[in-house]
Design goal:
Bound molecules: 4'-phosphopantetheine
CATH architecture of the domain at 13-133: 3-Layer(aba) Sandwich
CATH superfamily of the domain at 13-133: HUPs
Low-confidence stretches: none
Structural class: alpha/beta
CATH topology of the domain at 13-133: Rossmann fold
Helix content: 40-55%
Radius of gyration: 17 Å
């Protein structure tokens, strides 16, 4: 066994939470950067039953696993409930979030303060790569649904899955 556990050191864990419907290059950039800072990065697909996704939670997790497999220290799970409970159950002290623009900050700050007040978990904000500062899963789905090219905004496996899911929807499946 190698790594911090074998040397009696604590494992540094962080979580990257989100809906990931589907994961974009913007999400992947944040996860990849977090893998360099932490021993284990937990990607939590948070289940929101009031939001009907284009992909099922299992499909989202499968796509995330495929596109993060190269990092070797990413664990992908889903969670129904509070993010702070996901963190508590796994002894995760830090949430890593990407900030795309000042407009993200207001709500992200509220969530960070709420989460810290609930359980003491810290939130670390990573400035999004400017290449992806406009990027969101919703926008990608909208552009793709109208036939726009989003291939440069998604990992190839995700682009393929999105293209076929939208084709199924058009055929009424
Ligand atoms: O990708 P999204 O939809 O912008 O991610 C938002 C998400 C899922 C990270 C956020 O809504 C969340 O943490 N939800 C879990 C439920 C929760 O803990 N709510 C209280 C937040 S202070």
């Amino acid at each position: 066994m190698t790594g911090p556990e074998s040397e009696g050191l604590p494992v540094r864990r962080a979580v990257c939470p989100g809906s990931f419907d589907p994961i974009t290059n913007g999400h992947l950039d944040i996860i990849a950067r977090a893998t360099k800072l932490y021993d284990v990065v937990h990607v939590a697909v948070m289940i929101n039953q009031s939001k009907q996704g284009l992909f099922t939670v299992d499909e989202r997790m499968d796509l995330i696993r495929r596109v993060t497999s190269e990092y070797g220290n990413v664990s992908v799970e889903s969670h129904h409930g509070l993010l702070v409970d996901f963190c508590k159950e796994r002894d995760i002290p830090a949430i890593v979030k990407g900030l795309r623009a000042v407009s993200d900050f207001d709500y992200e700050l509220q969530m960070a303060q709420m989460n810290n007040g609930l359980s003491g978990v810290e939130t670390l904000f990573v400035p999004t790569n400017p290449t992806y500062s406009f990027l969101s899963s919703s926008l990608v789905k909208e552009v793709a649904a109208w036939g726009g090219d989003v291939s440069h905004l998604l990992p190839p496996a995700v682009h393929e899955a999105l293209t076929s899911r939208l084709a199924e929807r058009r055929e009424g499946k």
